[in-house]
C-alpha cells in the first residue's frame, strides 16, 4: 500500500484539468486502424470540385465514395427555358477544356432533330475544330496528370502548346476559351487563310514538341513508377460501367464513335483508333499521346481536303442569317426576327446524338414538343460516367496513387456536374 | 439491324414490348414496367442483340394526366455498333421502376441522377441517394412543376 505524496496528487490534478472532452480521444477498439479521409472538394489534385470520401487502412484505400454536384448549375433545366440557339453558349461551360467540340456536338444533335443537312465545307471545319479541341484537352490532361505526380515542368510545356491552339480559336471566332463557334446549320464564321497558316505552323512544330513531352515523361522513372500498374480496371468492368473514351480504349476496347458510327466527314479520313490493353494510368497517358498524333494527322488531311463553298446550310427557316444580310435584306430580317422570337420549331419527337469528344461519348438527348424550346434535354456527359469507375479503380491502391488515378481519368467537373 | 433486333426481343420476352417508334433513324421500344429487368437481361445476353453498354438512363416529365414520367434507357452494342432506346412509362402516383444495375452496373449513377431530378424510385437499387443535390433538398428540380428560377430558401445552407 502506497501513500500518495503531495507531488503525485498535484500531477493528477493537472491531468484531470487537461482531460476535458475536446482533447480526449476515446477508442472503442485500440487496434482499430481504419480512418475516413475527406478529400476535396477544394483539393488541387481533384481537377475542380470533386469530393472523395476515402476509407483508409494505414495508407491503403479500402473504399471510396465520390460525391458530385459542387458545380451543378442545372443546365438541363436552363435548356428547357432557352431556345435551341440560345443554349449554344451554355455548352461552352460543360467541358470547359474543349468547348468548341461541345458546340459541335450540340449543333449536330439539334440538326439531327430538325433535319438540317450542312454543306461539306462546314463539316470539314467542324472536324478541324473538334480535333484541335481534342489535342488541347489531351495536352491539359497529360500536363496536369504529370503535375499531380510531381512533375511541374511538363504542365508548362503542354500549356505552351495549348496556347497556340487557343490563338487559332482567337483568330477563327474571336474568343480563346468560351468559343461559341458552331451554329445550328453551320458555323459562326468562315475558316480563313490566316487560320490555315496558323494551323500549318502549329502542325509543323507539334510533332517535335509532343515528342519532347513524351520523352520527358516516358523516360522519367518517377513518372513511370507512379503510374504503372495503378488504377487498373478490367475490360468487362469498363464495358459494364459504360466507360467511354481513352479509358475504355486503354482497357483494350477499340470503341471510337468517329470510326464506329462516322459523323461529319470522319469516314473520308484515315486514322487509327489507339488501343492499349494494360488499362493502368500509364496506358491512359499513352492512349492520349497516341490520339494527339492521330489528331494531327486528321488535321492535315482535313486541311488538304477542305472544299470551297458555303459554310452554313441554305435553310432560312432554321439557320440564323449573317448580320450584314439582316441589315440589308428584308427577307433575312424577317427570318432573323422569326428565328430569334419563335425558334426553329423542330418536329415532335426525340433523338439522341453522341460524338467522340476528348473525354468520351458526349451526347445530347433532346425531346421536342414542336415549339422553339426543347421540352427536355439530357446531356450525356462522359466525365460523370467515367468517374463512376473511381471506387473500382481506387480500391486497394495507396493513398498517393489517388491523384495519379484521378489525373488519368481526366474528369472535368463542369461537365460531370452539369 | 434494329428491326431484326426488335423482332428478336419480342421473341425472347413475349408480351413485354408495348410499342415501337422510329424517328430520324433512332428506334425506341416502349416496354412494360414489370418486364424491364427481363428485357434488359435478354438484350445484354442474347448474342444477336448484345447490348452490353448502357450509355444513359434518364427521366422525362411529359406533364400529362396519365403516364406522366418516362424513363429512357439508351443502350449501345459494341458488337453490332448500334444504339437502341428502351422506354418505360410511369404514373405520377407510383413513380417506381425496378433497377437495372444488376444487368448493367453502369446504370447505377444514371439512376441516382434520375431519382435526384425526378423523384423516380428505382426499387432494388444498391445506393439510391441523390447524385448532385444535397440530401436535405426536398424537391426534384427537373419536374415541370418546379420553377426554373428555383424556390427561395429551398437549398439549405451548410450546417456548422
Descriptive report:
The complex is a heterodimer of chains A (418) and B (160). By secondary structure, chain A is mainly alpha-helical. Chain A has one domain: Cytochrome-c3 Hydrogenase, chain B (Orthogonal Bundle), CATH 1.10.645.10. Chain A has 18 helices and 8 strands. In chain A, α4 runs antiparallel to α5, α5 (120-148) runs antiparallel to α12 (281-305) and α7 runs antiparallel to α12. The longest helix of chain A has 29 residues, at 120-148. The model of chain A has no long low-confidence stretch (mean pLDDT 87). Chain B has a domain at 2-98: Beta Polymerase, domain 2 (2-Layer Sandwich). Chain B is built from 3 helices and 7 strands; from the N terminus they run αββαββββαβ. Chain B has helices spanning 2-12, 36-45, 107-118, and strands at 17-23, 26-31, 53-61, 69-77, 82-90, 96-98, 121-123. The radius of gyration of chain B is 17 Å and the shape is elongated. The chains are: A mainly alpha (418), B alpha/beta (160). Chain A binds chain B through residues 68-69, 72, 74, 76-78, 80-81, 112-113, 115, 237, 239-243, 253, 255, 260-261, 349-352, 354, 361, 363, 365, 367, 375-376, 378, 380, 384-385, 388, 417-418, and chain B through 23-24, 26, 28, 52-56, 58, 60-61, 72, 74, 78, 81, 83, 85, 104-110, 113, 117, 130-134, 141-142, 146, 148.
Summed up, what is this model?
With 418 residues, chain A is mostly helical. Chain A has 18 helices and eight strands.
Provide the domain count of chain A: 1
Report the strand count of chain A.
8
N-C termini distance of chain A: 72 Å
Question: What is the structural class of chain A?
Answer: mainly alpha
The CATH topology of the domain at 2-98 in chain B is given as: Beta Polymerase, domain 2
Report the CATH architecture of the domain at 2-98 in chain B: 2-Layer Sandwich
Query: Strand fraction band of chain B?
Result: 25-35%
Residue runs with pLDDT of under 50 for 5 or more positions of chain A: none
In spatial order, strands of the major sheet of chain A run: 1-2-3
Supply the number of helical segments of chain A: 18
CATH homologous superfamily title of chain A: Cytochrome-c3 Hydrogenase, chain B
User: Helix count of chain B?
Assistant: 3
| Secondary-structure element string of chain A | HEEEHHHHHEEHHHHHHHHEEEHHHH
Provide the β-strand percentage band of chain A: 5-15%
CATH architecture of chain A: Orthogonal Bundle
Oligomeric state as shown: heterodimer
Which chain pair shows the most residues in contact?
Answer: A-B, 40 and 36 residues
How much helix is in the residues of chain A?
Answer: 40-55%
Inertia-based shape of chain B: elongated
How many β-strand stretches of chain B?
7
Amino acid at each position: 500500500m502506497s501513500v500518495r505524496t503531495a507531488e503525485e496528487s498535484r500531477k493528477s490534478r493537472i491531468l484531470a484539468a487537461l482531460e476535458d472532452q475536446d482533447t480526449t480521444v476515446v477508442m472503442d477498439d485500440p487496434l482499430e486502424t481504419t480512418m475516413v479521409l475527406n478529400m476535396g472538394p477544394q483539393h488541387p489534385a481533384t481537377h475542380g470540385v470533386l469530393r472523395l470520401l476515402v476509407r483508409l487502412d494505414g495508407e491503403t484505400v479500402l473504399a471510396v465514395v465520390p460525391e458530385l454536384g459542387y458545380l451543378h448549375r442545372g443546365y438541363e433545366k436552363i435548356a428547357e427555358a432557352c431556345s435551341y440557339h440560345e443554349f449554344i453558349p451554355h455548352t461552352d461551360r460543360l467541358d470547359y477544356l474543349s468547348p468548341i467540340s461541345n458546340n459541335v456536338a450540340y449543333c449536330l444533335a439539334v440538326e439531327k432533330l430538325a433535319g438540317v443537312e450542312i454543306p461539306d465545307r462546314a463539316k470539314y471545319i467542324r472536324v478541324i475544330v473538334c480535333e484541335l479541341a481534342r489535342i488541347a484537352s489531351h495536352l491539359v490532361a497529360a500536363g496536369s496528370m504529370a503535375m499531380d505526380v510531381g512533375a511541374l515542368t511538363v504542365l508548362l510545356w503542354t500549356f505552351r502548346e495549348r496556347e497556340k491552339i487557343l490563338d487559332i480559336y482567337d483568330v477563327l471566332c474571336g474568343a480563346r476559351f468560351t468559343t461559341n463557334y458552331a451554329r445550328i446549320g453551320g458555323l459562326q464564321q468562315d475558316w480563313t487563310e490566316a487560320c490555315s497558316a496558323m494551323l500549318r505552323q502549329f502542325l509543323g512544330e507539334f510533332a517535335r514538341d509532343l515528342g519532347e513531352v513524351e520523352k520527358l515523361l516516358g523516360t522519367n522513372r518517377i513518372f513511370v513508377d507512379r503510374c504503372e500498374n495503378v488504377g487498373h480496371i478490367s475490360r468487362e468492368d469498363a464495358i459494364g460501367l459504360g466507360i467511354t473514351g481513352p479509358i475504355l480504349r486503354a482497357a483494350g476496347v477499340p470503341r471510337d464513335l468517329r470510326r464506329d458510327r462516322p459523323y461529319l466527314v470522319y469516314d473520308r479520313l484515315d486514322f487509327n483508333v489507339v488501343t492499349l490493353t494494360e488499362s493502368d494510368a500509364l496506358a491512359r497517358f499513352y492512349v492520349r499521346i497516341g490520339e494527339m498524333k492521330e489528331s494531327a494527322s486528321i488535321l492535315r488531311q482535313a486541311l488538304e481536303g477542305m472544299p470551297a463553298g458555303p459554310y452554313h446550310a441554305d435553310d432560312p427557316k432554321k439557320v440564323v442569317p449573317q448580320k450584314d444580310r439582316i441589315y440589308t435584306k428584308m427577307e433575312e430580317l424577317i427570318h432573323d426576327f422569326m428565328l430569334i422570337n419563335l425558334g426553329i420549331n423542330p418536329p415532335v419527337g426525340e433523338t439522341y446524338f453522341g460524338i467522340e469528344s476528348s473525354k468520351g461519348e458526349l451526347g445530347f438527348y433532346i425531346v421536342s414538343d414542336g415549339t422553339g424550346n426543347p421540352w427536355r434535354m439530357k446531356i450525356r456527359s462522359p466525365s460523370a460516367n467515367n468517374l463512376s469507375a473511381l471506387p473500382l479503380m481506387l480500391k486497394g491502391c495507396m493513398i498517393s496513387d489517388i491523384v495519379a488515378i484521378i489525373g488519368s481519368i481526366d474528369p472535368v467537373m463542369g461537365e460531370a456536374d452539369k | 439491324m434494329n428491326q431484326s433486333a426488335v423482332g428478336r426481343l419480342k421473341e425472347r420476352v413475349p408480351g413485354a414490348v408495348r410499342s415501337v417508334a422510329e424517328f430520324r433513324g433512332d428506334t425506341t421500344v416502349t416496354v412494360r414496367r414489370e418486364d424491364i429487368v427481363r428485357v434488359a437481361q435478354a438484350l445484354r445476353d442474347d448474342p444477336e442483340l448484345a447490348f452490353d453498354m448502357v450509355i444513359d438512363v434518364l427521366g422525362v416529365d411529359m406533364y400529362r394526366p396519365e403516364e406522366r414520367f418516362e424513363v429512357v434507357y439508351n443502350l449501345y452494342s459494341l458488337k453490332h455498333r448500334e444504339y437502341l432506346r428502351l422506354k418505360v412509362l410511369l404514373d405520377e402516383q407510383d413513380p417506381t421502376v425496378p433497377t437495372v444495375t444488376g444487368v448493367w452496373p453502369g446504370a447505377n449513377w444514371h439512376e441516382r441522377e434520375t431519382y435526384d431530378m425526378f423523384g423516380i424510385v428505382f426499387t432494388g437499387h444498391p445506393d439510391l441517394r441523390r447524385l448532385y443535390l444535397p440530401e436535405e433538398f426536398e424537391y426534384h428540380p427537373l419536374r415541370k412543376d418546379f420553377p426554373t428560377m428555383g424556390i427561395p430558401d429551398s437549398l439549405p445552407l451548410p450546417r456548422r
